[in-house]
Amino acid sequence: MKFSTLLVATFATAIHAQVEMDRLMDLKTKQWDRMRAEGVFNRYDNPNARVQAVGPTACVNGKAGEYSCDKVNLLSFLSHAEMGSSTKEGNDIWGWTSADGREFGAVGQTDGTAFVEIDKAGKLIYRGRLPTQTVSSPWRDMKVINGYLYVGSEAANHGMQIFDMRKLLPLTRPKTFSITTDLTAIYKGFGSSHNIVAHEEKNMIYAVGTSRNLPCQGGLFMVDVSNPANPVSPGCVSQDGYVHDAQCVVYNGPDAQYVGREICFNYNEDTLTIVDVTNKAAPRQISRTPYAGSSYTHQGWLTSSTDMTFLLLDDELDEEDGTGVAANGRTTTYLFDITSLASPVNTGYYQSPAKSIDHNQYVINGLSYQSNYNSGLRIVDVRSAEADPTGKSFRQVGFFDCHPEDDAVGGIVEFSGSWSVYPYFKSGYLLLNSIERGVFALKYTG
Length: 446
Prior knowledge:
The protein has helices at residues 2-37, 50-53, 318-321, and strands at residues 63-64, 67-70, 72-79, 90-97, 103-109, 112-118, 124-131, 140-145, 148-153, 160-164, 175-176, 185-187, 195-199, 204-208, 220-224, 236-237, 245-250, 262-267, 272-276, 284-289, 297-302, 310-315, 330-337, 345-355, 360-364, 367-371, 377-381, 395-400, 418-422, 429-434, 438-444. It is mainly β.
């Protein structure tokens, strides 16, 4: 009887989460359809347009050209049209550094992936593009392991493109690569996916948000890419159903029983769910933790890759729905104490000065680089997490707002502006991909 009750409760939770995901995608699709009808995506395809004429522009007195900022300089910009996109709509972004130190970006667009190089002065150079494998989709995600780019999409039957980024090195003019002859492989173990999670240390790709009708139920779809030309799936994680995004690490935190094991922190629509995936044939769910104010658990990151005691979690619908502390519309980041992987505790939260929906964040040396839709790039000092687990000591130390249209009203809770940021280049250059504009090369000066 108890088992049957648990099954019913689990099924009901899964149905509710699917409804929320469908609602989220519907909200976005309707807004982007409206933007297309208004011609928003065509405003930046003229090489003489003001936004494209901006060269290196320091942030002075809170402005870099038309963009509001603080301690973040604008170095270069390329529109989606300049990067070969016919739809002129952007999404995710990732980066790669060659063996000789050249820095490249893989810029997600609805109709493919554009490639840019950042030169030593921070100027963006368009190098080429890889078209979508099937049809266009607003959702495209990519990561890099050992120089190979792995691209998934919500496009039907897309699979996962595997592309050797070293093909960019000899180019002297932009090239459109073939989706047949220029790919290292195309992995067809799944069709559509929502996000691609990479664990470089283990040569593992975890595709998340694949079809809920597959055996993985949208959970971690494991792909071993030790041989990029012959990727194989050793298993999947389906215990808690659909995973929206994840971070996987070799654990070295305070919970001694898991030290040295491969742990994935999954952002599962309405919970933080932690799984031990060391044994690919028999992954084990360690915990499943809901939190007050949740609307749609989206993404997150450990505050430190060394002590692994706290993590940040962003919820993509709490500002939109006005739930809990996010009722004021200000971007809300939830802080979790994960000293015990079996018993995470939501100890506090941080709120941005700006109204905006959060989307993606990555933490380096105690700074969270957050891409928050209409408020753009926000850089938050989170080093005080252990000393003050309420999050009240977190502080914004820099920003670059790539969506000036709503500055006068202090921000609007909508799904436009920036999609994601790549902050891992040794040069310190940052890449910020805007949905309606293009890619910005930035530099934090704090």
